[in-house]
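Hi D.,

Good news: the full-assembly prediction came through. Inputs first.
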Amino acid sequence: MIMKKLQIIIVIVFMYAGPAAIAQMDCFQFVRSCDDGRREGFLFNGQSKSGQFDTGDTTEVTMVAYKGMDYRITACANEQDIPGVIQLRIIERIKKPYWDEQVISESEEMPMLDEYGDEKFDDDGEPMLEVITTSKTVKKRRYKMTEQVRYDSKKDGGEFSFTSQMTRKLHIEVIVPGTIGEGGLAAEEFVSSGCVGLLIEHRKGILNGFGQ
Amino acid sequence: MKQFKVICVLSLASSVLLSSCGENETPIQNEEIPAVADSVVADEGNKPEEQSFDPNLSYEVPTPSDLFLALQNIGSEGNFDFLSNPSNVSNYGDKKSKALNFGVYFADLSYASSFNYGPELVKYIKVVDNLSSELNIKSALDKALTERLQEHISNSELDSIVSISADTYYQAYDYLDQNKRGGTLRLIVAGGWIEGLYLLTNMVETYEAGSPIIEEIASQQLTVESVMGFLNDFADEDADVEEIMGELSDIEQLFMNLEYAEGTTESSVNDAGLTVLKGGDRPIISEEQFNELKSLVAELRNSITG
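Then the structure:
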C-alpha cells in the first residue's frame, strides 16, 4: 500500500516537476552567460560549446586555432548545480608520420636454365627445378601520436589567452569537479547535473617577425 | 527512494536531449595509429585501413569566417571571381542541395564581408535569407540581423558585418543542433567547408612553397579530420551525409598523405601577457599535391553548386 502510494507520488512529481526540471536543464546557448573578454577586443567564436554535465564528468572538444589570431578559452558552470571550479586542460596532439617497412620473402620452384637460357633436363628427361627466393618491400605510412599539455588551469590559473605562430589543432579537456568517493569513483549521493559552457573567443593578433 | 527514481527519469530524459555530452576515457599517450590510407609500395593486395573516430570526442569545425579572418590577418587579398552565383539558388530543389548550398553561400558571405566585396554583399545576404526559409531555420535567426547587416554594409563597417554574419551562422548551427536536425546541420557545415577550401585554393595564382597562403592550405589537414569526425556522427542516420563523406574521401586521403616539417614545440609569454604557442610539426603540401587538391576541390564544389 505504502509502495503503491509512493509510486503514484513519483508519477505526479514527474508529471509536474519533471518537464519543468528538464526545461531548466536545457543548456541552449548557456555559454553566452560566461564572462567574456569583449573589453579586450575578443569576439565569440563558433567553436564554443554548451552542454549538460554531471559532477565528476570529463569531456573533450577539439578546436582549430589559426595562425596569427589571439584566442581566449574559459569555462563556466551553473554554480547552484555544479559547485567548484571547472578545470581545463589544453593538449596538443602531434602526429608524426613514418614509413613502416617490411620485407616479405616468397619462394617458388622454377625450371633450371643453362648458360644459353634453355631449360635443363635430368637423365630421365624430366625438367630440372630450382627454388628461387624473391623478396619485396612493403612500405606503409603510419603515424605515431605524441601529446603535450599546453595549459592546465589547475596549475596555470583561471583563463588561457594565447596566440599561435602557426595553425594548429588543440584538444580541450573539460573536467567538471565532483566528489570523489572510495576507489576514485564519484560518490553517487552527491552527483548533480548542471549546465557547463566552454567559451572560445578570438581576435586579430599582431604578427611580428620574419616570414609572418 | 522517490528522489532516486525522479533523478533516474530526469537523467534519462536529459541524456536523450543532450546526446553530445559524454564522458571521456583517459587520453592515450604515444599511441600508434594507422594512417587513413596506407601508402603501399610493393604489396598491391594490401587494403587501406579504416579511419576510426573517437565517439567520446566532440569534433568542432571552425566556421568559414574564422578561416577568412585569419587569411585577412596574414595580408591575403580576396578574389571574388570564384564566389557561387546567387542566381543559381532557384536550381536547388532537394534537401541535400539546399543544405549544402546554404553552407556554400554562407561561406561566400563570410568571404565577401572579410575581403570587402561592397554592395554585392547584399545579394549573398538575400540568398542566405532565402535558403534559411526553405530549410525552416529562418525562425531561429534574429530577424534584425539582415537589417543590421544591410545597415553596416551601407556604412562600410566591415568588422561589424563579419561579426554579425558569424553570429547568424552560429544561431543557425545551434538551432539545428538543439532541434535534432543533425543531418541538415552536417550538410551545411560540409558545404561551408568545401566552399572555404575552394576559395582558399583559388587565392593562389602561382604555387610558392612556404608562402603563408600555401601553409594555410596545408594546415587545412587539421580541419579535414574534424569535418569527417563531425559528419561521421550522422553517417548511419542520414544517407546524404554518408554520401558527402564518400565524396570527400579523396580530399581527405590527399591531406593525410602530406609530409610534415618537424619542429620543437615551445611556449613563451609576450608583452601583452598572452602565451605564444610556437613550433610543432607542420604539414607541407608539394606543388603536385596542391594542383591535385585544387582540382579535386573544384570538381566536388562545382558538383554541389551545379
